[in-house]
Amino acid sequence: MHTKFLKKDNIVFEEHPKYTGVRIAKLITLQEAGPIGVSILEIATDTTIPVHTHAPNIDSIYILAGNGEAFLNGVWQPIEHGDYIFAPALEEHGIKNTGEGLLKLFVVHSPPLF
């Protein structure tokens, strides 16, 4: 793989393949990098990514914008711009947008999901 640079106008969002109300921009994919996948998620107001786990994937999530709640360590807790979440493999986690605008996440998966 070579160094990749994307201007913000060239970052393309598409409907998430699994979750309604969620759009995804796949910045780095399995085919490009192998050990990691990088994406940005936009979660619409009143939308929830249900509690789930990944195996063997980990999630590293930075909240770029918005407000919501994250299911971590067995409870829903508030999240906002600037917060960070690390969800190890097999740990239950979920995200919901409880704010008035988009909840925007920068996500790194290892190994990649896409």
Q: What do you see in this structure?
A:
- The protein contains one helix and ten strands, in the order E-E-H-E-E-E-E-E-E-E-E.
- It is globular.
- The chain has a single domain, classed as Sandwich (Jelly Rolls).
- It has 114 residues and is mainly β.
- The strands form two sheets. The protein has a six-stranded antiparallel β-sheet with strand order 1-2-3-10-5-8. Strands 4-9-6-7 form a four-stranded antiparallel β-sheet, with no helix packed on it.
- The model has no long low-confidence stretch (mean pLDDT 94).
| Regions with little confidence, pLDDT below 50 for 5+ residues | none
What is the CATH-assigned architecture?
Sandwich
Shape descriptor reads globular
Write the element-wise H/E pattern from the N-terminal end onward: EEHEEEEEEEE
- Tell me the span between the first and last alpha carbons: 16 Å
At the fourth CATH level, what is the homologous superfamily?
A: Jelly Rolls
Total beta-strand segments: 10
Largest sheet: 6 strands, antiparallel
Strand content: over 45%
Structural domain count: 1
> What average pLDDT do the residues reach?
94
Question: Which strands sit side by side, in order, in the main sheet?
Answer: 1-2-3-10-5-8
Rg estimate, integer Å? 14 Å
Number of helices: 1
- Indicate the CATH topology: Jelly Rolls
Helix content: under 10%
Name of the CATH first level: Mainly Beta
Structural class determined from secondary elements: mainly beta
Write the layout of secondary structure elements.
Layout: E1 14-15, E2 22-28, H1 30-33, E3 37-43, E4 48-52, E5 58-65, E6 67-72, E7 75-80, E8 84-87, E9 93-97, E10 103-110
Antiparallel strand pairs: 1-2, 2-3, 3-10, 4-9, 5-8, 5-10, 6-7, 6-9
